[in-house]
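Continuing the series of single-chain predictions for the mutant panel. This is the parent chain; the variants come on the following pages.
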Amino acid sequence: MSAQPSYDHLHAHLDGDARHAHVIEGRSQAALSVALGLTLLFAVIEVITGFISNSLALISDAGHMVTDAAALGLALLAQAIAKRPPSPRHSFGFVRAEALAAFVNSLAMLALVAWIAWEAVQRLLHPEPVQGGVVLVVAAIGASINLLVAWVLSRDNHSINTRAALVNVLGDLLGSLAAIAAGAIIYFFPTWVRVDPILSIFVALLILRSTSGILRESYHFLMEGVPHEIDYLEVGANLKGVNGVLDVHDLHVWDMSPGHPALIGHLEIASLEQWPAVLAAVRAMLREKHGIDHVTLQPEAAGGKSL
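Parent structure:
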């Protein structure tokens, strides 16, 4: 009786196999850690002063920063998980953890947008006094913090999670600028309190626009959608055009990890004896034309017989 193969052997990439990684390497968590610390510190300050000044613009910005802190914490956790190697129970590794965290962050941002819109409508219908001076000072400090955090995050643009966090922070920067404008206007024109909810709605729309892109990207990856840079129908046509291939079916293309597409499918060929030559030609074509090197194909002879 032959010995049971080890996990390392089962998961090994031998000569001719794809070179994609099942673990995300080289990701520094320092950027997210610094951003989390700065955001969380000022979020606490801004929440308190937001309620004291009774400014919806400042409260919205405070809520956004609290959401940013949670998003950054989740992104930090996801990056740590994504670095874990594959295991016998998770043979693909944990690279999807980053996309999952980005998806959850985006949903949280949508909930925040809905809350800001609801509160803004209430304030427009029933205006409330706002301490413009407090709003102006605190929002200016918040904008400075956001600029610093955005600069830190912009140094790591390889992670979908870091990009999602950066989108959040940039949206928060716009929120701080809107709060500065609201504070300045109300400080010099105390009766113009409706500018506060109006600018809050404007910020909510900007956040919504930014978040939708990250939401679509993470959802597409989690649902194993065809990579955007690959034309699924063209791949099928090119496969069928390879000499010796009669038909293609059960074809699937998706990303194993970000930037590493994979393909599986069935190829009908005239004779199984042709398979080594056909497989070599197919692999070369997919790598050259579509950048796909993780290929798993099942040959079937005309009439239904397979290897």
